[in-house]
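Handout, page 2. Input:
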Amino acid sequence: MQNNVPPRDSKSERKRQMIALQKIGEILVTLPAAQLLKIPLNEVLLEAITVARSLTSHNAKRRQLQYIGRLMRDVEDIASIQTALDKFALKSQQSKAKFHQIERWRDKLVEEQDATLDQFLQQFPDVDRQHLRQLIRNAKKNSLPDKELFRYLQNVIDT
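Output:
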């Protein structure tokens, strides 16, 4: 007679899963409130996360995070939580990349004005050339990176 009981995960596999859920809980605790509200969480888990945010004692916070990990085991749709966290991380990476792209354009425009300006105008033909040249001249006069030039480039690149 054959037994049709599905095989159970090993103890170490269950422990890895619990640690992974606790790490997701730690990420949830560090999220800004606006992002946290966009994630599908049950009330008990949301309350536990709110409590963890208010704790200052290291040991109390550690215990609360373990409790959150325990609550996470009861959540049926961990995939939707992970998907939401992945979207937040992707948006963060994209905004950092765009920020660095704008910084590079600003620095190149200030250092190598004419050649880089032509490249920039080819890529973004709707730019007010005179205004951009004026911003570059002002940035060259200042020893610090120019915020006005950065903001202008940011507006041009974002549109």
